[in-house]
Amino acid sequence: MKSSFPVRSLLVLLPVILSYCLVLSPSCTSSTASGAPEPPAGYANNNTLKVAYATGMLKLIEDKPEVPANIKVSRDLVYKVTQEKTLKLDIYHLDSLDGERPLLVFIHGGSWKKGNKDDYRRYLVDYAQKGYVTATVAYRFSQEATFPAAFDDVVCAIKWLKSRAADYHIDPERVAVIGGSAGGHLAMMVGYHARDENYQGECATDETDAGVKAIVNLYGPVDLTTDFAINHPSVQQLIGMEYSGETKSAYKACSPITFITPDDPPTLTFHGTIDDIVPIVQADMLDEALRKENIASYYHRLDGWPHTMDLSLKINNYCQYYMDEFFQKHLE
Protein backbone atom coordinates (compact mmCIF):
# COMPACT_ATOMS: atom_id res chain seq x y z
CA MET A 1 0.00 0.00 0.00
CA LYS A 2 1.41 3.39 -1.00
CA SER A 3 2.04 5.85 1.84
CA SER A 4 -0.23 8.89 1.89
CA PHE A 5 2.60 11.00 3.39
CA PRO A 6 5.03 12.19 0.69
CA VAL A 7 8.77 11.58 1.28
CA ARG A 8 9.45 15.15 0.15
CA SER A 9 7.27 16.45 2.98
CA LEU A 10 9.23 14.34 5.44
CA LEU A 11 12.47 15.83 4.23
CA VAL A 12 11.05 19.31 4.62
CA LEU A 13 9.97 18.54 8.18
CA LEU A 14 13.19 16.72 9.12
CA PRO A 15 15.00 19.82 10.42
CA VAL A 16 12.01 20.50 12.67
CA ILE A 17 12.00 16.92 13.90
CA LEU A 18 15.72 17.11 14.57
CA SER A 19 15.33 20.28 16.55
CA TYR A 20 13.24 18.33 19.04
CA CYS A 21 15.97 15.68 19.24
CA LEU A 22 18.54 18.25 20.33
CA VAL A 23 19.66 18.42 23.91
CA LEU A 24 18.08 21.50 25.50
CA SER A 25 21.10 23.78 25.71
CA PRO A 26 21.84 27.25 24.31
CA SER A 27 22.77 27.71 20.68
CA CYS A 28 26.32 28.40 19.59
CA THR A 29 25.52 32.03 19.04
CA SER A 30 24.30 32.68 22.58
CA SER A 31 26.68 34.14 25.12
CA THR A 32 26.94 35.08 28.74
CA ALA A 33 26.83 38.61 30.03
CA SER A 34 30.62 38.70 29.75
CA GLY A 35 30.44 37.82 26.04
CA ALA A 36 31.74 34.28 26.47
CA PRO A 37 29.95 31.71 24.28
CA GLU A 38 27.61 29.17 25.79
CA PRO A 39 28.00 25.49 24.81
CA PRO A 40 26.43 24.76 21.41
CA ALA A 41 23.25 22.68 21.51
CA GLY A 42 24.06 19.00 21.28
CA TYR A 43 22.14 15.91 20.22
CA ALA A 44 20.03 13.33 22.01
CA ASN A 45 22.26 10.52 20.74
CA ASN A 46 24.72 9.63 18.00
CA ASN A 47 21.96 8.57 15.61
CA THR A 48 20.32 12.01 15.58
CA LEU A 49 23.75 13.56 15.16
CA LYS A 50 24.38 11.40 12.08
CA VAL A 51 21.04 12.47 10.61
CA ALA A 52 21.95 16.12 11.26
CA TYR A 53 25.22 15.62 9.38
CA ALA A 54 23.53 13.77 6.50
CA THR A 55 20.99 16.56 6.07
CA GLY A 56 23.58 19.33 6.20
CA MET A 57 22.48 20.72 9.57
CA LEU A 58 25.82 19.83 11.20
CA LYS A 59 28.62 21.87 9.66
CA LEU A 60 32.17 20.58 9.90
CA ILE A 61 35.47 22.46 9.94
CA GLU A 62 37.86 22.46 7.02
CA ASP A 63 40.39 20.18 8.67
CA LYS A 64 43.10 20.55 6.02
CA PRO A 65 43.05 24.29 5.23
CA GLU A 66 45.50 25.87 2.86
CA VAL A 67 48.45 27.34 4.71
CA PRO A 68 48.37 31.15 4.31
CA ALA A 69 51.29 32.85 2.62
CA ASN A 70 52.24 34.63 5.85
CA ILE A 71 52.82 31.34 7.70
CA LYS A 72 56.22 29.64 7.53
CA VAL A 73 56.14 25.87 7.82
CA SER A 74 59.15 23.67 8.58
CA ARG A 75 58.03 20.16 7.69
CA ASP A 76 59.33 16.69 8.48
CA LEU A 77 62.07 17.70 10.88
CA VAL A 78 63.64 14.53 12.27
CA TYR A 79 63.65 14.60 16.04
CA LYS A 80 64.31 10.94 16.83
CA VAL A 81 65.38 7.76 15.09
CA THR A 82 64.10 4.51 16.55
CA GLN A 83 64.45 0.89 15.54
CA GLU A 84 60.88 0.95 14.30
CA LYS A 85 60.89 4.19 12.31
CA THR A 86 62.23 7.71 11.94
CA LEU A 87 60.09 10.23 13.83
CA LYS A 88 59.37 13.70 12.48
CA LEU A 89 57.60 16.90 13.48
CA ASP A 90 56.33 20.07 11.79
CA ILE A 91 56.59 23.67 13.02
CA TYR A 92 54.36 26.61 12.03
CA HIS A 93 54.78 30.30 12.80
CA LEU A 94 54.21 33.72 11.27
CA ASP A 95 56.88 34.53 8.72
CA SER A 96 57.22 37.97 10.29
CA LEU A 97 57.60 36.64 13.83
CA ASP A 98 60.24 38.42 15.87
CA GLY A 99 61.46 37.36 19.29
CA GLU A 100 60.29 34.43 21.38
CA ARG A 101 56.69 33.22 21.51
CA PRO A 102 54.88 30.47 23.43
CA LEU A 103 54.95 27.01 21.85
CA LEU A 104 51.81 24.90 21.41
CA VAL A 105 52.55 21.21 20.76
CA PHE A 106 49.65 19.28 19.20
CA ILE A 107 49.43 15.49 19.55
CA HIS A 108 47.06 13.66 17.20
CA GLY A 109 44.75 10.83 18.22
CA GLY A 110 43.86 7.53 16.60
CA SER A 111 43.63 4.91 19.37
CA TRP A 112 47.46 4.97 19.62
CA LYS A 113 47.59 2.91 16.41
CA LYS A 114 46.86 5.33 13.56
CA GLY A 115 46.62 9.01 12.67
CA ASN A 116 48.89 11.62 11.15
CA LYS A 117 50.71 14.67 12.47
CA ASP A 118 48.86 16.72 9.85
CA ASP A 119 45.48 15.84 11.38
CA TYR A 120 45.46 19.02 13.48
CA ARG A 121 46.32 21.42 10.68
CA ARG A 122 43.23 23.50 11.48
CA TYR A 123 44.61 24.28 14.93
CA LEU A 124 48.19 24.58 13.71
CA VAL A 125 47.29 27.25 11.17
CA ASP A 126 44.80 29.10 13.37
CA TYR A 127 47.14 29.39 16.33
CA ALA A 128 50.13 30.30 14.19
CA GLN A 129 47.96 33.13 12.82
CA LYS A 130 47.30 34.19 16.41
CA GLY A 131 51.03 34.63 17.00
CA TYR A 132 51.99 31.35 18.62
CA VAL A 133 54.59 28.87 17.43
CA THR A 134 52.75 25.60 16.79
CA ALA A 135 54.19 22.14 16.35
CA THR A 136 52.78 18.69 15.62
CA VAL A 137 54.58 15.42 16.28
CA ALA A 138 54.54 11.87 15.00
CA TYR A 139 55.06 8.99 17.42
CA ARG A 140 55.33 5.21 17.33
CA PHE A 141 52.04 3.34 17.12
CA SER A 142 51.12 0.53 19.48
CA GLN A 143 51.51 -2.14 16.78
CA GLU A 144 55.09 -0.91 16.31
CA ALA A 145 56.09 -0.56 19.97
CA THR A 146 54.00 -0.82 23.13
CA PHE A 147 53.77 1.70 25.94
CA PRO A 148 55.74 3.71 26.99
CA ALA A 149 57.13 4.12 23.44
CA ALA A 150 54.61 6.75 22.27
CA PHE A 151 54.92 8.67 25.54
CA ASP A 152 58.74 8.58 25.33
CA ASP A 153 58.55 9.86 21.75
CA VAL A 154 56.40 12.89 22.61
CA VAL A 155 58.70 13.73 25.54
CA CYS A 156 61.68 13.56 23.19
CA ALA A 157 59.90 15.83 20.69
CA ILE A 158 59.33 18.47 23.36
CA LYS A 159 62.96 18.26 24.46
CA TRP A 160 64.09 18.55 20.83
CA LEU A 161 61.92 21.64 20.32
CA LYS A 162 63.17 23.28 23.49
CA SER A 163 66.80 22.54 22.65
CA ARG A 164 66.34 24.33 19.30
CA ALA A 165 64.14 27.11 20.60
CA ALA A 166 66.32 29.90 19.22
CA ASP A 167 65.97 28.54 15.68
CA TYR A 168 62.16 28.73 15.67
CA HIS A 169 61.27 31.76 17.86
CA ILE A 170 60.26 29.47 20.75
CA ASP A 171 60.17 30.53 24.37
CA PRO A 172 61.16 27.23 26.08
CA GLU A 173 59.64 28.40 29.36
CA ARG A 174 56.15 28.78 27.85
CA VAL A 175 55.08 25.47 26.36
CA ALA A 176 51.62 23.86 26.27
CA VAL A 177 50.62 20.40 25.07
CA ILE A 178 47.29 19.80 23.34
CA GLY A 179 45.87 16.45 22.31
CA GLY A 180 42.66 14.71 21.36
CA SER A 181 41.65 11.18 22.39
CA ALA A 182 44.87 9.11 22.42
CA GLY A 183 46.69 12.40 21.89
CA GLY A 184 44.95 13.82 24.95
CA HIS A 185 46.14 10.82 26.94
CA LEU A 186 49.73 11.43 25.80
CA ALA A 187 49.47 15.16 26.52
CA MET A 188 48.37 14.43 30.07
CA MET A 189 51.12 11.85 30.53
CA VAL A 190 53.65 14.49 29.49
CA GLY A 191 52.18 17.12 31.80
CA TYR A 192 51.77 14.90 34.84
CA HIS A 193 54.68 12.45 34.55
CA ALA A 194 57.52 13.63 32.27
CA ARG A 195 59.30 15.52 35.05
CA ASP A 196 58.96 12.83 37.71
CA GLU A 197 62.26 11.59 39.13
CA ASN A 198 61.25 7.96 38.59
CA TYR A 199 60.57 8.48 34.88
CA GLN A 200 63.45 7.37 32.70
CA GLY A 201 63.07 8.32 29.04
CA GLU A 202 65.39 7.72 26.14
CA CYS A 203 66.13 10.99 24.36
CA ALA A 204 69.21 12.41 22.72
CA THR A 205 68.58 15.67 24.62
CA ASP A 206 68.06 14.21 28.10
CA GLU A 207 69.59 17.26 29.73
CA THR A 208 66.70 19.39 28.49
CA ASP A 209 63.68 19.82 30.75
CA ALA A 210 60.43 18.36 29.38
CA GLY A 211 58.14 20.37 31.64
CA VAL A 212 55.12 22.21 30.24
CA LYS A 213 53.05 25.09 31.59
CA ALA A 214 49.60 24.03 30.44
CA ILE A 215 47.60 21.05 29.12
CA VAL A 216 44.57 20.96 26.83
CA ASN A 217 42.82 17.60 26.95
CA LEU A 218 40.21 16.93 24.28
CA TYR A 219 38.25 13.80 25.29
CA GLY A 220 41.34 11.84 26.32
CA PRO A 221 41.31 8.68 28.48
CA VAL A 222 42.55 9.27 32.02
CA ASP A 223 42.26 5.98 33.89
CA LEU A 224 43.02 2.79 31.97
CA THR A 225 42.17 0.54 34.91
CA THR A 226 38.38 0.98 34.61
CA ASP A 227 36.23 -1.91 33.38
CA PHE A 228 35.58 -0.15 30.06
CA ALA A 229 39.30 0.47 29.46
CA ILE A 230 40.72 -2.90 30.46
CA ASN A 231 38.38 -4.66 28.02
CA HIS A 232 39.09 -2.31 25.12
CA PRO A 233 41.25 -3.88 22.36
CA SER A 234 43.11 -0.61 21.69
CA VAL A 235 44.13 -0.30 25.34
CA GLN A 236 45.23 -3.93 25.47
CA GLN A 237 47.31 -3.40 22.31
CA LEU A 238 48.85 -0.22 23.71
CA ILE A 239 50.03 -1.99 26.85
CA GLY A 240 50.86 -5.21 25.06
CA MET A 241 49.01 -7.57 27.37
CA GLU A 242 45.56 -8.35 28.65
CA TYR A 243 44.48 -7.10 32.05
CA SER A 244 45.01 -9.40 35.04
CA GLY A 245 46.18 -9.26 38.62
CA GLU A 246 49.75 -9.58 37.37
CA THR A 247 49.42 -6.82 34.74
CA LYS A 248 47.34 -4.35 36.74
CA SER A 249 50.45 -2.28 37.55
CA ALA A 250 51.18 -1.85 33.82
CA TYR A 251 47.67 -0.47 33.22
CA LYS A 252 48.06 1.85 36.19
CA ALA A 253 51.45 3.07 34.94
CA CYS A 254 49.79 3.97 31.62
CA SER A 255 47.07 6.07 33.32
CA PRO A 256 47.63 9.83 33.61
CA ILE A 257 45.50 10.01 36.76
CA THR A 258 48.11 7.87 38.55
CA PHE A 259 50.67 10.67 38.41
CA ILE A 260 48.66 13.76 39.39
CA THR A 261 50.42 15.80 42.10
CA PRO A 262 49.90 19.35 43.39
CA ASP A 263 52.70 20.82 41.24
CA ASP A 264 51.15 19.74 37.92
CA PRO A 265 50.13 22.25 35.21
CA PRO A 266 46.64 23.74 34.85
CA THR A 267 44.43 21.62 32.61
CA LEU A 268 41.65 22.58 30.20
CA THR A 269 39.32 19.69 29.32
CA PHE A 270 36.60 19.34 26.69
CA HIS A 271 34.46 16.19 26.66
CA GLY A 272 31.05 15.28 25.26
CA THR A 273 28.38 13.40 27.19
CA ILE A 274 27.48 11.01 24.33
CA ASP A 275 31.08 9.99 23.67
CA ASP A 276 30.96 6.23 23.07
CA ILE A 277 34.73 5.88 22.56
CA VAL A 278 36.00 7.48 25.77
CA PRO A 279 33.18 7.63 28.33
CA ILE A 280 32.44 11.03 29.91
CA VAL A 281 33.15 9.55 33.36
CA GLN A 282 36.85 9.69 32.45
CA ALA A 283 36.74 13.49 32.29
CA ASP A 284 34.64 13.61 35.46
CA MET A 285 37.33 11.63 37.31
CA LEU A 286 40.06 13.90 35.96
CA ASP A 287 38.34 17.07 37.11
CA GLU A 288 37.75 15.59 40.57
CA ALA A 289 41.38 14.44 40.89
CA LEU A 290 42.78 17.81 39.79
CA ARG A 291 40.56 19.76 42.18
CA LYS A 292 41.51 17.44 45.03
CA GLU A 293 45.15 18.46 44.49
CA ASN A 294 44.24 22.15 44.08
CA ILE A 295 45.33 22.17 40.44
CA ALA A 296 43.51 24.63 38.18
CA SER A 297 40.94 22.59 36.23
CA TYR A 298 38.82 24.16 33.51
CA TYR A 299 36.24 21.54 32.58
CA HIS A 300 33.75 21.89 29.71
CA ARG A 301 31.26 19.03 29.94
CA LEU A 302 29.36 19.39 26.69
CA ASP A 303 25.86 17.90 26.63
CA GLY A 304 24.94 15.87 23.58
CA TRP A 305 28.32 15.85 21.83
CA PRO A 306 30.33 12.79 20.76
CA HIS A 307 33.97 11.82 20.38
CA THR A 308 35.99 14.05 17.97
CA MET A 309 33.30 16.67 18.53
CA ASP A 310 35.66 19.51 17.62
CA LEU A 311 35.29 18.54 13.97
CA SER A 312 32.00 20.41 14.31
CA LEU A 313 32.43 24.05 13.32
CA LYS A 314 30.36 25.19 16.31
CA ILE A 315 32.35 23.14 18.81
CA ASN A 316 35.68 24.05 17.25
CA ASN A 317 34.87 27.75 17.56
CA TYR A 318 33.75 27.18 21.14
CA CYS A 319 36.93 25.27 22.02
CA GLN A 320 39.19 27.86 20.44
CA TYR A 321 37.50 30.67 22.36
CA TYR A 322 38.26 29.01 25.70
CA MET A 323 41.69 27.82 24.57
CA ASP A 324 42.51 31.45 23.73
CA GLU A 325 41.52 32.50 27.26
CA PHE A 326 43.45 29.60 28.78
CA PHE A 327 46.66 30.32 26.87
CA GLN A 328 46.38 34.04 27.55
CA LYS A 329 46.14 33.34 31.26
CA HIS A 330 48.80 30.65 31.61
CA LEU A 331 51.29 31.32 28.80
CA GLU A 332 51.29 35.06 28.12
Topology of helices and strands:
Layout: H1 7-21, H2 46-54, E1 71-81, E2 86-94, E3 101-107, H3 121-129, E4 133-137, H4 149-163, E5 170-180, H5 182-193, E6 214-218, H6 227-230, H7 233-239, H8 248-253, E7 267-272, H9 281-292, E8 297-302, H10 313-330
Helix pairs in contact: 4-5
**Main sheet specs:** 8 strands, mixed
Provide the succession of SSEs.
Answer: HHEEEHEHEHEHHHEHEH
Number of helices: 10
C-alpha end-to-end distance: 68 Å
Count of individual beta strands: 8
Tell me the Rg in angstroms: 21 Å
Characterize the overall form.
Answer: globular
Spatial order of the strands in the main sheet? 1-2-4-3-5-6-7-8
Nearest-integer average pLDDT: 91
Strand content bin: 15-25%
Share of helical residues = 25-40%
Helix-and-strand structural type: alpha/beta
Instruction: State the low-pLDDT regions, or none.
Output: 1-21, 24-30
Explain the overall architecture:
Helix content is 32%, strand content 18%. With 332 residues, the protein is α/β, with parallel strands linked by helices. An eight-stranded mixed β-sheet has the order 1-2-4-3-5-6-7-8, with helices on both faces. It is globular and about 50 Å long. The termini are far apart.
Task: Provide a compact summary of the structure.
Helix content is 32%, strand content 18%. By secondary structure, the chain is α/β, with parallel strands linked by helices. Helix 4 packs across helix 5.
